[in-house]
Amino acid sequence: MRLPLILCLVLGACRALSAQSGLPALEAAQIDTLGAESDFPSKCFDAAFAGPRGRFFLRSCAVGYQRQEIYLVQFDGYGFRPVEIQVPESVNWPQQRPRLTHQHSDSLLIGHYANALLRFNLNNQQSTLLPIDSTGRKVILQTAPGIPGETWVLAKDSAQVYVFRYADGRFRQMAALSLEGTAFSEGTLYSASLLCYHNQTLWFTDASGLIVRMDAATGIFTRFVLRSPGETEDGLIRNLTVHRNTVYCTRTYLNKTTLLQLRTGEKQFLPAPFGPSTIGEIFKLFTDRSGNMVIVCEKTSKITGALLIDAGGKMFNYAPVLTNVASSSIMQLDGQDFKKQMKVLTREGLFLLSLRQPGGIQIYFPDKSMRGMIELPSGDLLAAIDKNTAFYPLSDPDVAVLEPYHNKWPVWKGQRFLADGQYVWYLSGRKFNTVYRFDQQSQHLDSFLFDLKINRIAVLPNQKLVLASIPHLYVFDVQSRALNLYLENGHPKVFDFGKQVHDMVLGRNNTLWLGSNGGLWQVDLQGRKSKQLAREAGLQDYRVQVVCESRTGLVWFGTILGGLHCYNPKTGRVRVIDRASGLASNTVVSLLEDDEGYLWAGTYDGLSILDSTGRILRNLGLSDGLSYTEFNRFSYLKTRSGDLYFGALRGLNRIVPEKIINGLKGLTPSQVYLTEISWFDPGNVQFVTRQTGLDQLGTIQLIADKRFLNLSFALADYSQSSENVFAYKLDRPGQQWVHIGKEHQLNLTGLPAGAYDLLIKGLSHNGNWSEPLRIPLQVSAFFYNQRWFYVLLLLIGPAAIFTWFFLRRRRSKVVQAEASLASRIADPKPLGWLENLEAIAQNTLSGKGELTAKYLADKMAISERQLLRKLKAETGMTVKDYIQEIKLQKARHLLESRTFDTIAEVAYACGFNTPAYFSKVYEKRFGKRPGEYN
User: What secondary structure does DSSP assign to 333-350, as a single string?
Assistant: First the structure.
């Protein structure tokens, strides 16, 4: 069926969403309103530009830049910040600002003003103007990107329209077209959708009745006049777009908008077969960077229909994605892949939409608690439901009445069901003493009663079972009905299982893996030897609930509160992956490996997907389509077709792994980036704060007495960005990651001397840790901690020793004199004692020493308790309050005398760790903020 006919059936003039019901629908999994709490004056944006390390910038709507209001803004994950477009000093912008039109590279934007091309560097926010010719008579109408590193420029003078190609730092005129019969002479074009390049062909329009095609190789023009017979005036042309070698545009005439197309080989633009829209209805076209196109139909700024055509020509109903987010007219859709995630720019705000992968998750029994699953030899799937003693077949998810598969099956909740190709095995009975075997072909049910309380069973080849009954293992021969204790060295092996065996899995090489309250047990059934892994082996929690042996031989096991563990039998090493690593929850109850080697971990707070190395790819939750986020033990299954089933407290989830994984492929890993940094720059001898050029800082030099650094940063994962958490580390021996939660600022003081990197990483709500951001530091040590000082000591050592003995002897005489004087003074006045204490405190602050209660007590030759008692009696203050008062009084003196230029210098000079805390306590004490002294 031809594309226009399908469009006709799908859109039906966009008058009803029901017209698209025959197409697969895409849905939004997560909708985020970016900068919702920001007090930024305007949130109308019509273009988005990607910056380095995941930053992104927004262009204000046309009204804003025509009025010289804030034109370009940056969103840093938490709010908007205006970006000043700096230009050469010789340029004076007139009333109307230049227009940025497209992105040339990661850090370079292209725009134009008058007769010059504007290049704007996002890193340093510097601009360059490049005139297109020396005459200055040609005015640029529009620019558009070509192949990487190339920009096409449309310009005009009084007689002609010119096409220029800009590449490698220079302009080249490609062709010229007469203005006669066009509307180009009316002025500058402000819509970026009126010029586009595709496959060696340039398309542009005068926005009225003419579309021009230019062959980039030959410079030959072809004109297409869009006025129909009988029309008395030109229509308004917008949305010039090329998708899959078909050229699209919209034409509005007498308040009716029609979507037109020019297919390969056709000689004129034709309207879609469904004809024009209704009065006031308009089309808008948007493309992404993966070859998808979205057609949106609006009426009175409300969406009435939407369609996505992907790079392969497949179509999807896109209305469910957009109707719940856009309360006003859509200005732009921006994204790498509209089938995965995109930004929606509207007149009222900015939104981020993350899409649910169609067909990836299907829900059965949405209001039931699942307690077990089994795939019969025939391929039929059965599920055990809580508070029922029957299995139920999986059929249509919407079936309301459940019919049990086999009424005679005794079922007890909380059990694993096993299949060996012919039979189904499970443990049941209120005393956990009966094993059942079901033959689907004959519908015969056998039971085996034991004088044991059985925890778990495992099926061995040749009709044998392994029974776990604390504290032993038994091997049961089904044919002979013989039950034998598992022996090691000729004696029954006593296992430290604790009070429960939670899981038992038969792995490769006839090895049995048991998860218990006593840790993970490895039992070699053939070699008759066993090994226990518990806390001493590095387990974060030795209560193992579920075990899965991967195809690579690694053994994964989930614990009650210690997260997921990975054991390598060859090396004996254990690796822990917990919530701090990005796992959805530290309680892991189910594990399955799919056909591609990805691991799926069901937890008490979502489903985590990991690759074969243990890297977390994503955490799935309710917004991704899961029935519930708390999964049940024993209720998980991988079918022979490769589908995965996870039972939850509410509902059973069928997972099609390849559809979920394909949705994750191609996504750019998030990066942490700086938004602001402050430090004392020894080169400029002042405190500096940088908000630009943050990726070209180089090594930051910190001097010995100002070893502090203040940083703000963000993670370029803007979906639920308020849930992003961070950690930092000084890349030095023995240093560990310091987790700071959702705090996205760091105030580091007292940094250790040396050359090293400051590392900052971020964790998104999906469980993905970013690669660390590295900030090189060179921190100077105090002179007496540097090598040259020790060399100097060696050189002057003999003189220093002589001087030390001389001063010690002199000091001894002074002490004797003071003791003699003290003996003649019966009781010194308290005021003299207090003055002495204050002098010691002031001298300590002046010498930049650490002022503490212990220090003062030692100097006053009394205990800390005596110091507190005496100070309380004389001043009514505690030692802590007294020290703070001394600091504040000194700060007041420094502020009034204007000794320092900044508040930070005053704070550090008075022994406060941060300027913010200093300002807070100062205002509380004196009723005046430090900043008011300037």
Answer: EEEEETTTEEEEEESS-E
Residue with tokens 């995630």: 341
* Helix 864-875 vs helix 830-846: crossing angle, to nearest 10: 110
* Contact (CB, 8 A) for 211 and 203: yes
Rounded distance, CA 715 to CA 736, Å?
A: 21
Give the dihedral sign, CA 267/273/278/284: negative
Whole-model pTM: value is: 0.72
Give the pLDDT confidence score for residue 411 in this predicted structure.
58
Cα end-to-end distance, the chain, whole Å: 76
Q: Is 514 helix (H, G, I), strand (E, B) or coil?
A: strand
pLDDT tens, position by position, 634-650: 899 999 999 999 999 99
Q: Are 370 and 632 in contact (CB under 8 A)?
A: yes
| String of DSSP letters for 559-619 | ESSS-EEEE-TTT--EEEE-GGGT-S-S-EEEEEE-TTS-EEEEEBTEEEEE-TTS-EEEE
Is residue 699 packed enough to be buried (19+ CB in 10 Å), middle (13-18) or exposed (0-12)? exposed
Using CA atoms, how far residue 617 sits from 583, 608, 770, in Å, is: 10, 8, 11
Dihedral (Cα; 867, 870, 875, 880), 10-degree rounding: 20
Cβ neighbours, 10 Å, residue 9 = 16
pLDDT at 338: 94
* Burial class of 61 by CB neighbour count within 10 A (0 to 12, 13 to 18, 19+): buried
Parse the chain into domains and list their residue ranges: 1-41+229-356, 502-620, 672-785, 827-933
Q: How far is CA 619 from the centre of its chain?
A: 11
Residues of the chain under the 70 pLDDT cut: 1-21, 41, 62-70, 86-97, 185-193, 230, 232, 273-280, 326-327, 387-390, 395-404, 406-415, 429-430, 666-668, 782-793, 797-800, 802-832, 847-849, 934
Residue 733 tokens read as 């021996």
Q: Are 169 and 214 in contact (CB under 8 A)?
A: no
Predicted local distance difference test score (pLDDT) of residue 362: 92
Q: Is the peptide bond before 397 cis (omega within 30 degrees of 0)?
A: no
440's tokens: 């689907």
Fold of the 672-785 domain: Immunoglobulin-like (2.60.40)
pLDDT of residue 817: 44
827-933 carries CATH number 3.30.499.10: no
The CATH number given to 502-620 is 2.130.10.10
Based on its alpha-carbon atoms, the radius of gyration of the chain, rounded to whole angstroms, reads 37
Residues paired with residue 446 on neighbouring β-strands, in sequence order:
437
